[in-house]
Amino acid sequence: MKLAWILLVVAALLELVWATALKQSNGLARLWPAVIGMAVALLSVVVLSVSLRDLPVGTAYAVWVGLGSLGVAITGIVVLGESASPARVACLLLILVGVIGLKVVDG
């Protein structure tokens, strides 16, 4: 079960790579960022699917999306200069609380 959670976190971290690469692809107009983005997205889904062998699908998917969204939003703020308004940060913290809650509940 512990390995499944580790794989789930890895799959979520891969979302940072593919989402950032797709942003850099300029709407798929730049070939290599687009190729990297799509390849890493596929890898992320593959790793997620392996974690699903031992985790409930609802929990795993929510954690995967939550951590991925949180990571991409933080990357946008830190690397791309996107807004870090108090309301946005508060909402991101709520996502984090939800992910932690799912881990606690489903262990």
From TrEMBL:
Which cellular component terms (GO) are annotated to the entry? plasma membrane
**Transmembrane stretches, start-end:** 29-49, 61-81, 87-105
Where does the protein principally reside? membrane
Q: Which family does it belong to?
A: Belongs to the drug/metabolite transporter (DMT) superfamily. Small multidrug resistance (SMR) (TC 2.A.7.1) family.
- Which organism encodes this protein? Actinomadura rudentiformis
Please give the Pfam families that the UniProt record associates with this protein: Multi_Drug_Res
Its localization reads: Cell membrane
Q: Which UniProt keywords apply?
A: Cell membrane, Membrane, Transmembrane, Transmembrane helix, Transport
Query: How is it placed in the membrane, per its record?
Result: Multi-pass membrane protein
- Gene3D superfamilies linked: 1.10.3730.20
This chain belongs to the protein called QacE family quaternary ammonium compound efflux SMR transporter
**Which molecular-function annotation in GO is an example for this chain?**
transmembrane transporter activity
